[in-house]
What does this fold into?
Amino acid sequence: MGRRSLAVVPWPDIGQWCLELHKSDGAAMERNMLRQDVSRTAVRTSADHRVPVTDRTPQEPPLRVSPGAEPAGPPDDVLQLLTPEGVRRSHADLDDWVADVGDDELAALYEDMVVVRRLDLEATALQRQGELGLWPPLLGQEAAQVGSARALRRDDFVFSSYRENAVAYCRGVDLTDLVRVWRGTTASGWDPFAVGMATPTIIIGAQTLHATGYAMGCVKDGADSVAVAYFGDGATSEGDVNEAMVFAATFRAPVVFFCQNNQFAISEPVGLVAVRPLADRAPGFGIPSLRVDGNDVLAVTAATRIALDRARRGEGPTFIEAVTYRRGPHTTSDDPTRYVDPAVAEEWCAKDPILRVERLLESRGRLTAELTAAVTEHADAAAAEMRRGCLGLEAPPPLSVFDHVYTAPTSWLERQKSQYAAYLAMFEEA
It folds into this structure.
C-alpha cells in the first residue's frame, strides 16, 4: 500500500500544539555551579562562519574555583549573557568572545533557531501521522545546539547523539537526510565527511570515545581541527563518557565535551544521578569545565569559542555543561506527562531560548515585520521541503541489508543472504 500524501501542518496549529505540550512537561533546574580555570587568547574561526571573527584578544578570565573547595554558587552564577527577559548582560569573562556578534549576526542565529524548531515540530507531526517510525525532539534546546554549532570551523568534526538535529542543520546536512534513518530507509543518514559530522550514535555515550580518538588523530596529523562530542546528562553515567575523558586528559586531545543537561535521562531526573553539577565531574579527570545557560545562544557561543580556542592552542579538552530543558518527550514513544512536574515546565517556558532573542531584537528595533515574515517563510519552506523529501523516500530492496556489512562478501554472509532470499520467495509464491 502506498504512502498517503499529507499537507504541511500549518505553523499556527503547530504553535498551539507546542504550547499545550509545554504545559505538560517539567523538571527541576539544577541550582549549583563550579568551574575550574579556563585560560584563552584569541578566537580563530573560518571565513564561512555565520558569526564574523573578531581581532580582539580577550583578557585572561578569573574563572578559578577549586572543585569541592566551597559550596556551588546560586543559580544565576551559571554563565549568562542574555536573560529570559531579553536583557543583554555584561560579563567580563564572556563579552570579548562575542564582541563581533552584532544585530545582524544575532538575527541570523535567531533565524537558525526558528527554522530548526519548525523542522523539529514538522518531524514530530510526521511521526504522529505514521510517516516516521520515531523522532527524538529537541524542543527547548535550540540555543545550546545552534550557538555551539555556529562556533565551529568547517574542518572541525562533530560526534553526536540522536537529538542533535539542529547541529546537523547548521553543518549543512540535507533536510531529507535528517529523516532517512527515522523512516527506516537507511542505516546511515548522510556522508559524514561531506559535512564534518558523523551520523548519530544511538548507543548512549559511545560517540565521546569516537570524538576523543579522532582528536588524538588530529594531533598526530599536525592539524588544529577540534572534535566535539555532544551528549546528554544521562550519558555522563555511562562508562564510555568517563573513559573518553580519561584518554582526552591524558593525551591532551583537542576535544570539546558538550553536555546538554536537559534535566532528564528519559524519565529519570538528573538529580537522581548527580548530587552536584555535572560540570564538577570533569575537573576530577584534569579537564577544566564551564557551566553555561544552555538557553542563551550568546553565552553558549562564547563558551564554545573558549573551549575551541583552548583545544587549538594544544591545551587539551574542555567540558561544557549547557543547562537547558527538554520541553518535549525523550522520543515520540515517550509519555512525559507520567513523570514531569507541570509547574516546573511552566517556569521553563518563560526561559525559552527563542523568545529571549526576540525580546532583545525587539528592544533594539530589529524585530521588524519584514524580518519576522522572512524568517517564518524560510521556516515553513524548510518544513515543506523536509516533508516532501520524507514522503518521497522509497524502501530499499530487502536484500540490500547485506550490501555493506563487510568490505568484501564472506561465505557466511552469502549463505545468510541466500537463505533470506528463499524466505522472501515464499511470500511471492503465496
